[in-house]
Amino acid sequence: MSSSNKGPVIIITGTPGTGKTTHAELLAQESPVPLKHINVGEMVKQKNLYEAFDEEWQSYTVDEDKLLDELEPLASAGGIILDWHTCEIFPERWADLVVVLRCDHTKLWDRLEKRRNYPLKKIQENNEAEIMEVVLDEARSSYPQEIVVELQSERTEDLESNIQRIMQWIEAWKEDRDLA
Ligand code: DAT
C-alpha cells in the first residue's frame, strides 16, 4: 500500500478558558507535520455560520449544517486542529485524536473574569460545566475511548508537557502511516 500524506485531524476541546487556543497555536507552530489551526468559534463569526446572536448570553446560535459543510473539505484534506468548546457535532470519522483540556474551576473562574464583555452568567455556566465534566463526557460518548485524551491545563508546565505529548502522538501517527 502507498503511504498517505493526509495529515491528522486533532480536536482540542474543553470548557471556555481551559486553554484550547493557547494549545492549538503552539501546536500549529511546533508540529512535525503541517497543521492548520481552526478556531471554530471565530470561523462561525467570520463566515456567518450562525442563526442568531443572543445579546443576553453574548453568544451565537450556530447553524450546525452550515458549519459542518464548511469544515467537511478541511477535515477530509486533514492536517487541521479543530479548536472548539464542544466536539460532539464533529463526525466520528473525522477525528484522529480528541484532546479534552481540564482546569481547576476556581482558576477557570479567574481566567474568564479577565475576559472583556463576558457576562457573569456565562462564567457561572462554564464553571459549573467544568465541575460536571460536561465536555469530557461529551467527548467520551462521541468518540472511541482510545482516541480521547484528558489533559490538565493549569500551569505553563502543563502547556509544555501537553504539547510534547501531542507531538509524540503525531510522531507515532506519522510512523504508522509511513509503514502502511
Ligand atoms: P480557550 O481557548 O479554551 O477559551 P485560552 O487558550 O484563550 O482558552 O486560555 C485562556 C487563558 O488562560 C489565557 O489567558 C491563557 C491562559 N492559559 C490557558 N492554559 C494555560 C496554562 N496551561 N498555563 C497557563 N495559562 C494558561
Task: Show the helix and strand layout.
Elements: E1 9-13, H1 20-30, E2 36-39, H2 40-46, E3 50-54, E4 59-62, H3 64-77, E5 80-83, E6 97-102, H4 105-113, H5 120-131, H6 134-142, E7 148-152, H7 156-179
Parallel strand pairs: 1-5, 1-6, 2-5, 6-7
Antiparallel strand pairs: 3-4
Helix pairs in contact: 1-7, 4-5
The structure holds 2'-deoxyadenosine-5'-diphosphate (DAT).
Residues 14, 16-22, 111, 153-156, 158-159 line the site of 2'-deoxyadenosine-5'-diphosphate.
Protein name: Adenylate kinase isoenzyme 6 homolog
Subunit structure: Interacts with small ribosomal subunit protein uS11. Not a structural component of 43S pre-ribosomes, but transiently interacts with them by binding to uS11.
InterPro entries: Adenyl_kinase_AK6 (IPR020618), P-loop_NTPase (IPR027417)
